[in-house]
Specification:
Layout (H helix, E strand, L loop, with lengths): L1 H15 L5 H17 L1 E2 L4 E2 L54 E6 L4 E6 L9 E6 L3 E6 L3 E3 L7 E2 L3 E2 L9 E2 L2 E3 L46 E4 L5 E4 L1 E2 L9 E10 L6 E10 L4
Parallel strand pairs: 8-11
Antiparallel strand pairs: 1-2, 3-4, 5-6, 7-9, 7-10, 12-13, 14-15, 15-16
């Protein structure tokens, strides 16, 4: 009887089917509903919550994609890899600024342009050196300006300045004054003087008023008398004897007379005169 009851139970179960685990079936059905409700179509595939999205190529993300020449991780241009992920340059011609004032080259290691300004300096301290985009190097004179303490329009060669486009106050554009404290001394001086100058004790007394390094006497001729026709005497005024040195006194022939006995014209009158120089 015990075995008969067991057999009857087995037959009953087989006929009625196995009982279902509704807890598992319900979870699977719910998952299908969530998936269907939360699907988002994208160009690269389907985004599923809890999973990373499909990879999409993008310039500037630091990943070299199939259609990119370069990708440096940014969208800046002119840094070797431009915003469209192409090289900034591949040859020097790509870097030209269109001016003669710079040497433009492509650094092929970085594919970035390098611009090197040309050197226009002429090593002259009194010029302003610059480059004109069309004409190239230019050198504008900015001096030197010479200190003109005595305001005779001639400046000192030892006191100069430069670097300014306009002449500073107290300076002149012309140098060569050998004594800038004495207005009568300059290369332009034409007057002859009786007394020397010493430039406030800076130099030994000198008559070099025109700054040519020499003392030039005003009068060098020696006086003479010549016998003319009849009773006429011809005179050439000048020094009686050798010309005196600068600042020294001498006698100056001013008149000739014919000797009554000999008929020869001889010096008759002279005056004192000091030798003037410059």
């Amino acid at each position: 009887m015990r075995y008969g009851s067991a057999a009857a139970l087995i037959v009953s179960v087989l006929l009625s089917g196995c009982p279902r685990d509704t807890s598992l079936t319900g979870a699977a059905d719910a998952s299908e509903e969530i998936t269907a409700d939360t699907q988002e179509e994208t160009s690269g595939g389907v985004v599923i919550p809890g999973h990373p999205p499909p990879y999409e190529p993008e310039c500037g993300n630091g990943i070299l994609d199939e259609d990119e020449v370069c990708d440096d991780g940014n969208t800046e241009s002119l840094d070797g890899c431009d915003a469209d992920c192409t090289y900034t340059c591949v040859e020097d011609a790509d870097c030209s600024l269109g001016t003669v004032c710079s040497t433009d080259v492509c650094n092929l290691e970085r594919h970035a342009c390098e611009h090197h300004p040309i050197r226009c300096a002429d090593d002259e301290p009194c010029t302003y050196d610059y480059c004109d985009d069309a004409a190239g190097c230019r050198h504008r004179w900015t001096g030197p300006w010479y200190r003109d303490a005595d305001r005779d329009c001639w400046g000192s060669l030892t006191d100069t300045t430069c670097g300014t486009a306009t002449m500073p106050r107290g300076y002149t554009a012309t140098g060569g004054d050998c004594c800038d404290s004495e207005p009568s001394v300059s290369p332009h001086e034409t007057e002859y003087h009786w007394d020397p100058y010493d430039c406030d004790g800076a130099v030994a007394p000198t008559f070099d008023f025109n700054c040519n390094g020499e003392e030039e006497p005003r009068w060098l001729q020696v006086g003479r008398c010549d016998t003319g026709s009849g009773t006429l005497c011809l005179i050439e005024e000048g020094w009686v004897g050798d010309p005196p040195a600068c600042g020294e006194d001498g006698r100056w022939l001013t008149e000739c007379r014919r000797d009554a006995e000999t008929g020869v014209c001889q010096p008759a009158w002279d005056i004192a005169r000091s030798q003037r120089c410059r």
